[in-house]
Amino acid sequence: MRRFLLAVSLLALSGTPLSAWTAAAKAPVKAAATRLAAKKPSAVRPGAMIDPGLRQVIDDKHRKPENMARDKYRHPAQTLTFFGLRPDMTVVEMIPGNGWYSEMLIPYLADQGHYIAAVSPKATDDFKAFLATDTDRYGKAQVVPFNAGQPNTFAPDGTADMILTFRNIHNLLGSPDQPGDGNAPQAFTDWFRALKPGGVLGVVEHRLPENMETAREKKTGYVKRSTLIRLALAAGFQWAGASDVNANPKDDHDHPDGVWDLPPTYQAGEKDKAKYAAIGESDRMTMRFVKPDPNAPSDANAAPALNTDPAALEEKAAAPEKADAPEKPEKPESPK
User: Any residues with CB less than 8 A from the CB of 31 and at least 6 apart, and which?
Assistant: First the structure.
């Protein structure tokens, strides 16, 4: 640990640019991702302060009752607090589906911040119809196109404070007939470019245990932590922590139709429905990544902010705290 802090101090004194440090750290990306994936996720701090404004939009009676009923699976207050959401941020929500998170994010950011929804062309009309249901609450939202596999500009380069993506990584990885990581690398590259230095990428995704076959990622909706970390590090992000707030230990990750057999989809219909209901919604990982900031302070107390070496970050990580007892996690929306 002392050797790592000394290395950071020497870097600051030598004037070596952070880009050189990042390039050197990104070389062993796959091995680093595997080491980080093996770590137990940090918990959302028990009793962490929830912004009263965030709590207000979560509890707002204007939300759809069926959406509020799923709060116990998605833990929006804890999840968004873990990501570090503030009301003055410019936030891009990727592929927002039917607007479950948008219903809270848009009014929360309306006065001081800026909400941007990145929506696929085929879903644009439906999302705009959702916004039109309450122009007073959703009128300040901006909609931009997201074309999977192509370069996309969600906001002027280096201007977004936060990018959020909920249960979309498996869609970006694609189907078994798509080679490699599908459309995911391009998406991570676009997210990195859109964020400010120090900006946050917050990801929630169905979690595939590391000891299961990687090929299942393109069939079941579950994704390995090591895959997510590898994709993020390759794009230039640094790993900034994980939470098990959306974990579900009852989920054995082994269902004929993947996550879609679980509630609320019940893709198998009445077959084994009671069993899937008892499991609840899918086991999920909640991950936070940061775009390195070359202007961050280089003193010892700020060393983790400069850290782009996953092995050193792993050594620095604090001992996990006990998580708030997670309730049943959730399922993907329509195509998710």
Answer: none
Secondary structure percentages of the chain, helix, strand, coil, to 5: 40, 15, 45
Strand partners, 144: 118
pLDDT tens per residue across span 226-244: 999 999 999 999 999 999 9
Rounded Cα distance between 103 and 195, Å, is 23
Q: Is residue 144 classed as helix, strand or coil in its secondary structure?
A: strand
Spatial distance between the Cα atoms of 17 and 282, rounded to a whole number of angstroms: 42
Burial class (CB in 10 A: 0-12, 13-18, 19+), 78: buried
* pTM attached to this predicted model: 0.79
How buried is residue 225: exposed, middle or buried, by Cβ count under 10 Å (0-12/13-18/19+)?
buried
DSSP state of 261: G
